[in-house]
């Protein structure tokens, strides 16, 4: 034991000599004498916290009112102090100065540190630092490396958030989805570095380490508040996210639950070590595990039924949108009802044009040429006059009415005139005259007028000329039949038998 104590005392003496020599050199060779002396004395080999006056001198040199060259020189001097030392006390006290500068100096110091790390090797990269002077120094060196990682992550978090979470109010409560998914992982990584700063071994009883751990523990409160606000905001937006964002959000929420449990254990250790005097740490409330299960089910279902993803959460919003659409449709229907009758008129006009019209008038209910031929054929038959009364009686018995039959069956006192007017087949001259007069009347009308009646559809001039020619031929045929019939009737009036034979010869 005496040998170990002698070696430790010897190292302290050598450390004191190094600090004195460095101060003497700074007084002679340095352009920033006061700053160099303050840095050496604030980061000496003495295993006690630095004096406040030396720290204030350093802060004055890196304030926003000083030229940027002075700030850059101070950062370079601190980085050189870290890179050249192998003593845990010098390294830890230098890190404490940098940490306090991040907390107490304006944000421009953050930016200068970030810019310095981009141009050179990062000054806080102490992954290879070790002090093997004693077994306790190994434990101290391990904690110094962890503390350097926390400060490095603190700078990275400032770069992502664009503000210092310790000195400013957390803004995660009002962020949108994209910013939440970017900033919450940075805050959770910073909290992970806080939890890693839990001292172990001999570092639990070191006073300088307690001082640095107090700074870390106090900042963890603000970090956790920012994460809690961001997690609550994330939970509100979770069921509106795309599946890829929902997966990231689920991982963030799951990690927040795990870190909340570990942070409670960390605070219990800090209370047992009398870090922060215990009254400033609050009780961590665990997020509900049921909500985590709901989020996992949602992500699982969103992968299978992605189109119906929002129906689980937007049930309150969807009815409002539907009602708004219905309210807009009602006045539109009322406005459309008045102009609805006019479109019905062209439907009525187009209804008769369903079937093609009879251009030649072959379907006309009036007697046509074929019917006249049939009746004329009947007229050629020689029928005795005695059969005529029976025919007339049969027509009366059938209840046939009409001015044509009335003329045929009308009683007459002149038996000879009635017999003379009777023709074969039960017809008389008046009936035939009425039929032929109707045909003459139709034939006298111009073809264009008849065509317009039977063919309301618009046709070409060439087709119209063809139809008119056909109708002219038909009319000529009807006129010829009428002339033949009149000639025949003139003969019948003289003598029925002689007329019939004469008509046959005429036709032959």
UniProtKB/TrEMBL annotation:
Location(s) in or outside the cell: Cytoplasmic vesicle, Clathrin-coated vesicle; Golgi apparatus; Membrane, Clathrin-coated pit
InterPro entries from the UniProt entry: ANTH_dom, ANTH_dom_sf, ANTH_N_plant, AP180-like, ENTH, ENTH_VHS
Compositionally skewed regions (Basic and acidic residues) per UniProt: 311-338
Keyword tags: Coated pit, Cytoplasmic vesicle, Endocytosis, Golgi apparatus, Membrane
Membrane found in the keyword field: yes
GO MF entries: 1-phosphatidylinositol binding; clathrin heavy chain binding; phosphatidylinositol-4,5-bisphosphate binding; SNARE binding
Ranges of residues in domain ENTH: 27-165
One BP term from GO: vesicle budding from membrane
Principal cellular location given in the protein's record: cytoplasm
Origin superkingdom: Eukaryota
Cellular component per GO, a single term: clathrin-coated pit
Stretch list, region Disordered: 302-352
Record-linked PANTHER family: CLATHRIN ASSEMBLY PROTEIN, OS06G0175500 PROTEIN
Listed name of the protein: ENTH domain-containing protein
Species of origin: Turnera subulata
Lineage of the species this protein comes from: Eukaryota, Viridiplantae, Streptophyta, Embryophyta, Tracheophyta
């Amino acid at each position: 034991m005496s040998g170990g104590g002698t070696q430790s005392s010897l190292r302290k003496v050598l450390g004191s000599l190094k600090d004195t020599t460095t101060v003497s050199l700074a007084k002679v060779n340095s352009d920033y004498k006061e700053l160099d002396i303050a840095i050496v004395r604030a980061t000496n080999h003495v295993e006690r916290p630095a004096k406040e006056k030396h720290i204030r001198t350093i802060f004055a040199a890196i304030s926003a009112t000083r030229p940027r060259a002075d700030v850059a020189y101070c950062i370079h001097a601190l980085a050189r102090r870290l890179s050249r030392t192998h003593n845990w006390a010098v390294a830890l006290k230098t890190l404490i100065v940098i940490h306090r500068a991040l907390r107490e100096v304006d944000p421009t110091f953050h930016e200068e540190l970030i810019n310095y790390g981009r141009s050179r090797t990062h000054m806080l990269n102490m992954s290879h630092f070790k002090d093997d002077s004693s077994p306790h120094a190994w434990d101290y060196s391990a904690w110094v490396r962890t503390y350097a990682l926390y400060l490095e992550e603190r700078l990275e978090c400032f770069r992502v958030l664009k503000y210092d979470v310790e000195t400013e109010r957390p803004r995660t409560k009002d962020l949108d989805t994209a910013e939440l998914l970017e900033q919450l992982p940075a805050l959770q990584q910073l909290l992970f570095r806080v939890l890693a700063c839990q001292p172990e071994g001999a570092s639990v009883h070191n006073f300088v380490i307690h001082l640095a751990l107090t700074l870390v523990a106090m900042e963890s409160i603000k970090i956790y508040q920012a994460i809690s606000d961001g997690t609550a905001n994330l939970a509100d937006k979770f069921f509106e996210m795309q599946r890829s964002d929902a997966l990231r959000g689920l991982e963030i929420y799951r990690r927040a639950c795990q870190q909340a449990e570990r942070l409670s254990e960390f605070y219990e250790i800090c209370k047992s070590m009398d870090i922060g005097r215990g009254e400033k740490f609050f009780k961590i409330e665990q997020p509900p595990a049921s909500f985590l299960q709901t989020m996992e089910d949602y992500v699982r279902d969103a992968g299978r039924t992605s189109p119906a993803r929002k129906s689980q959460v937007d049930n309150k919003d969807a009815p409002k949108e539907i009602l708004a659409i219905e309210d807009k449709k009602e006045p539109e229907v009322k406005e459309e009802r008045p102009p609805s009758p006019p479109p019905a008129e062209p439907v009525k006009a187009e209804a008769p044009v369903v079937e093609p019209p009879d251009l030649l008038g072959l379907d006309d209910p009036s007697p046509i040429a074929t019917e006249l031929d049939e009746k004329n054929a009947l007229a050629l038959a020689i029928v005795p006059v005695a059969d005529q009364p029976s025919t007339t009686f049969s027509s009366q018995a059938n209840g046939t009415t009409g001015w044509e039959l009335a003329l045929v069956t009308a009683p007459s006192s002149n038996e000879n005139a009635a017999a003379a007017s009777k023709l074969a087949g039960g017809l008389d001259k008046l009936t035939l005259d009425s039929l032929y007069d109707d045909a003459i009347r139709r034939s006298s009308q111009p073809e264009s007028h008849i065509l317009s009646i039977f063919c309301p559809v618009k046709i070409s001039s060439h087709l119209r000329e063809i139809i008119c020619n056909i109708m002219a031929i038909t009319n000529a045929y009807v006129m010829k039949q009428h002339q033949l019939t009149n000639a025949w009737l003139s003969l019948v009036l003289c003598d029925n038998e002689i007329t019939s034979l004469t008509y046959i010869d005429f036709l032959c």
